[in-house]
Amino acid sequence: MKVVVEGVTKRFTVKGTPAVFEASFEAPSGGITTLLGPSGSGKTTLLRIISGLESADEGRIRVDGEDITALPVGKRRFGFVFQTFALFDHLTVRENVAFGLEAQGVRGEAVGRRVEELLTMVQLDSLGGRYPAQLSGGQRQRVGFARALAPYPKVLLLDEPFGALDARVRVELRAWLRNLHDATHLTTLMVTHDQEEALELSDQIVVMDRGRVHQVGSPREVYDAPSTAFV
Fold it and tell me: Which of 31, 106, 138, 162 could form a disulfide with 169 if both were Cys (CB 3.0 to 4.6 A apart)?
């Protein structure tokens, strides 16, 4: 599923500086595209526009050629993983992962099979009966990934997915996420301010600052041939 962002602009006040200004790039099908930039660069706002959680003032979002700019968030079939784990504390790991499927009306053995498949994929198959409070931060984030993947999303959106974790766990989960992606080949868009994380994980990097896209390219291209002084 290729995601195309065309000239997206977003203002939160009528005469204010745009949070995102004429942003354009293509996220290739089956790859990890990372929006990289400092706080306030517009990367999270742009991800929220792609997801449908925010609306664009100008521009379009296309997925495999279909214009989804006006499509409600619930109909985009995107999976979300956030910096805060956003798990339901009163539900077990297994019930958290099943939540998205059940919300779509899936019932019975199909839910159980999908949940067990994903718990094995994220290496938590022995912890399905535990509650979030009984897990480490890294384990809780892996539950978040499993829950996002459960309803067979078209695209996976990650907003600073490792930001709440300590440095050692972040390094471990970067390698884990790359392996997970290589197993699923799901088109993924990730937001981070961590340059090392972006260079290690990404197939493509979109460098942003003050709402503008400065450069789009592979990690090697961005590192070896920066297009602006900011990059």
Answer: 138
One-letter amino acid of 226: P
Question: Are the C-beta atoms of 76 and 51 separated by less than 8 Å?
Answer: yes
Q: Which two tokens stand for residue 13?
A: 């006040």
Beta-carbon-side half-sphere exposure of residue 190 (alpha carbons within 13 Å) = 30
pLDDT tens digits, one per residue of 70-125 = 999 888 989 988 877 678 999 999 999 998 888 777 788 888 899 999 999 888 98
Distance between CA atoms of 43 and 154, rounded to whole angstroms? 21
Q: How far apart are CA 102 and CA 154, in angstroms?
A: 18
CB atoms inside a 10 Å sphere around CB 26: 15
Distances in Å between the Cα of 71 and the Cα atoms of 5, 75, 77, 112 are 15, 7, 10, 30
| Interacting residues of 157 by C-beta distance below 8 A, sequence separation 6+ | 47, 50, 51, 78, 79, 80, 81, 188, 189, 190
